[in-house]
Design a protein that fits this description.
six-stranded mixed beta sheet, Restriction Endonuclease, 8 strands, 35% helix, 6 helices, alpha/beta
């Protein structure tokens, strides 16, 4: 795969190049190692594009995981202890089942990476909320978000969001005083 686009959010490119250049080389090596053509599935029963070979986001995620884990990147996980003191007097919640967590896909030396082959809402959430939370909790100082460009997203077996949409949102939103430096990488085959 190739890096087809770069967007620097809150000086992300400058910060990562100065503080994490060696890790950025690893990220680029992982991207170049992935052969997207090995992660295609045939659409058979779907109403749209039946019989067409499309890229499988789940399979691509697994390939990226293997490559990052082989390079000693770790998943970071934070347990969420949700507050219960804000319910109204009339509301009596049931006990929550299981634990709630927030996860960052990969972390190494205070650089966080999120790989996004999922739905649109999570892209902006990753940069504007999740990375900020993981920074505040002491896990990361900066982040990299890896997302497909539109041309690649259009060839995936499930609807995913894409680089151009993400950049537009971040440009229109602007930078807040709590945002951390993030480099968004748009990838293609």
């Amino acid at each position: 795969m190739i890096i087809a686009g770069e967007f620097s959010f809150n000086d992300g490119k400058k910060v990562i190049n100065s503080k994490y250049k060696h890790l950025l080389r690893e990220v680029k090596a992982v991207i170049s190692t992935i052969d997207a053509n090995q992660h295609k599935t045939k659409r058979s029963k779907e109403k749209t594009m039946p019989g067409r070979m499309l890229f499988n986001p789940k399979s691509l995620n697994e390939a990226f995981k293997k490559e990052f884990y082989d390079r000693q990147w770790q998943k970071a996980k934070i347990k969420c202890d949700y507050p219960t003191g804000y319910y109204t007097e009339k509301y009596k919640p049931k006990a929550m089942k299981g634990g709630a967590f927030r996860e960052m896909d990969f972390v190494k030396e205070s650089l966080g990476i999120e790989l996004q082959f999922g739905k649109y809402a999570f892209m902006v959430y990753n940069v504007c909320a999740k990375m900020t939370i993981f920074n505040k909790m002491g896990f990361i100082d900066a982040g990299v978000e890896i997302v497909p460009i539109k041309q690649f997203a259009d060839e995936m077996s499930t609807g995913v969001s894409y680089f151009e949409q993400f950049v537009w949102d971040l440009e229109k939103r602007g930078v807040s005083n709590i945002d951390i430096p993030v480099l968004i990488l748009g990838i293609d085959t």
